[in-house]
Design goal:
The structure is a single chain. By secondary structure, the protein is mostly beta strands. The chain has one domain: Jelly Rolls (Sandwich). 5% of the residues lie in helices and 41% in strands. The protein has two helices and 15 strands. It has a six-stranded antiparallel beta sheet with strand order 1-2-11-7-13-5, with no helix packed on it. Strand 1 and strand 2 form a beta hairpin. The longest helix is centred in the N-terminal third of the chain and has 6 residues. It is globular and about 55 Å long.
Length: 187
């Protein structure tokens, strides 16, 4: 597996190898030992799957607050997305900056977004399925949303009128939310 740093070094792009023949292909999508060798010792607690019927569906920006903050390993099973991670760790040299990558079913790339980052994606194709592993179980009291179009963050979603849930349509800006993470200077 090739592991690539993005413009924000803590956010990684993982490239699992696909081994193929006339039947199709096989890929090891996650290996605790492989990630540990790369200094990424994540322990995942839950697997999630989302399905979006229409292209232009935007889910995000989301996070969970400590003590159940989640790191996420995101991959696309069908369709394609623009996947976004926003650094919201106060004191980080990358605070307020974001990384955007295209993930699709045809290439095995995965995005690893650590805790302390908002995460979201917009679907580029209909019938998109996104699978993601998280390091903490879902906790409704700790679950937060921040406005996808927060002008202070300026995320370029490459879409003007996304399909949103009521929750995401009504999400506050980061400044108006209670979402706070501290950078621990241990990147």
């Amino acid at each position: 597996m090739k592991i690539e740093a993005t413009a924000i070094p803590e956010v990684k792009l993982l490239h699992p190898q696909r081994l193929g023949d006339e039947r199709g292909w096989f890929s090891e999508t996650w290996s605790a030992a492989e990630l540990a060798r790369a200094g990424l010792g994540y322990s995942f607690a839950q697997d999630n799957l989302s399905y979006s019927r229409r292209a232009g569906t935007l889910r995000g920006l989301h996070c969970q607050l400590p003590p159940v903050a989640q790191s996420k390993l995101v991959s696309v099973l069908t369709g394609a997305i623009l996947d976004v991670a926003v650094d919201i760790r106060e004191g980080s040299p990358h605070y307020g900056r974001w990384v955007k990558v295209r993930l699709d079913a045809d290439t095995p790339a995965q995005l690893l977004a650590p805790a302390g980052f908002l995460h979201g994606f917009v679907t580029l194709k209909p019938d998109t399925r996104v699978a993601y592993k998280v390091t903490a179980p879902y906790s409704r009291p700790h679950d937060r949303s921040v406005a996808w179009d927060d002008p202070a963050l300026g995320v370029d979603w490459e879409i003007k009128d996304p399909i949103l849930s009521d929750r995401d349509a009504k999400a506050p800006t980061l400044a108006d939310s209670d979402v706070r993470f501290c950078w621990n200077n241990q990147a």
